[in-house]
């Protein structure tokens, strides 16, 4: 007992001596203390004066089953588009749509829109399984196509869409809105392109969503109509991986899916994760339907971009540490730490797509990129290990 006590005292004195000695050494040897950091520079990005869009088009809508259609339509209108007509099989969905766009013509059939040669673009947020077939008919009618994600649900659809797109040379644009429709994501792209964090080597995307089953239509829970979780919201993350890493080719490393909390819908996936890689970068993706009711938005979506000289974190829809609103971005590199309020950043996708339609260019998104993001999501869904939950 006495021996143990003497050993304890020796160790205590030795530790105390070491601490005393360490206190006399320069703090630079240990890095900065957490209480000795530079103040974070806060930047509120101000909206610049933008000229009116140079180009204009006439466009229409076929299929309004998902609320994303409103953001899609608004982006094209702001980009120089004029909304002509809308067609929906579900008459009840037209009430809200025509209330928001009172001057739109309600078409009696899909063919009425497809046969109108003055229409240059058709947008769709139909039931997901119908989106690719609509797009094929649109391209064959000589028009460009803009669809909500998932824009293609199966590899059979994927093969046919690519075939028709190549034959017709029309644009098939899938709206990966977690990048194209998010201001922080746009700002992150500009910072990455400017070399603010060096060469990007990895992305880590987290895409939680709120379920609320009572608010969802029946097709939402059927993978054959809506696609699985990786095919659906996973496509957002695949798009971001390709974009921020500048990858032109990629493959799925692993994927898995599970149904943890929805036994009433046994075919449904409420959780999924996957990893992707290209020759020079990797990406990890986790998506779920577990946003709790205590959060003041539908999901705490985040994206981390790791570079050789720093990193970026986006808190896209909420900052639970207290900053108000959406579109928060943090940048850390070898020189500084910055916070960007991106709430007024301009989102160029709509204007770019209008310009692409008129000039036959690829400024909004290349066709290869659009298809590769979806191909990764389809592959991940198809090969996913099914968790036994």
Structural overview:
The protein has 389 residues and is α/β, with parallel strands linked by helices. The chain folds into 2 domains: 57-175, Rossmann fold, CATH 3.40.50; 179-348 and 380-386, Dihydrodipicolinate Reductase, domain 2, CATH 3.30.360.10. It is 34% helix and 24% strand. It is built from 12 helices and 16 strands. The strands form 2 sheets. It has a 10-stranded mixed β-sheet. A 6-stranded parallel β-sheet has the order 4-3-2-5-6-7, sandwiched between helices. Helix 5 runs parallel beside helix 6 (155-168) and helix 10 (234-245) crosses helix 12 (367-383).
What is this structure's SSE topology?
Layout: H1 2-23, E1 41-44, E2 57-64, H2 68-78, E3 81-87, H3 91-100, E4 105-106, H4 110-114, E5 121-125, H5 128-140, E6 144-148, H6 155-168, E7 172-175, H7 177-180, H8 183-193, E8 200-208, H9 223-226, H10 234-245, E9 251-258, E10 271-278, E11 281-288, E12 302-307, E13 310-315, E14 328-333, E15 337-341, H11 349-359, H12 367-383, E16 385-386
Parallel strand pairs: 1-15, 2-3, 2-5, 3-4, 5-6, 6-7, 8-11, 9-16
Antiparallel strand pairs: 8-12, 9-10, 10-11, 12-13, 13-14, 14-15
Strand order of the largest sheet: 1-15-14-13-12-8-11-10-9-16
Give the integer mean of the pLDDT values: 92
* Uncertain parts: 1-36
Q: Under the CATH scheme, which architecture of the largest domain would be assigned?
A: 2-Layer Sandwich
CATH topology of the largest domain: Dihydrodipicolinate Reductase, domain 2
CATH class of the largest domain: Alpha Beta
- The helix tally amounts to 12
The CA-CA distance between the termini, in Å, is: 52 Å
Rg to the nearest angstrom?
25 Å
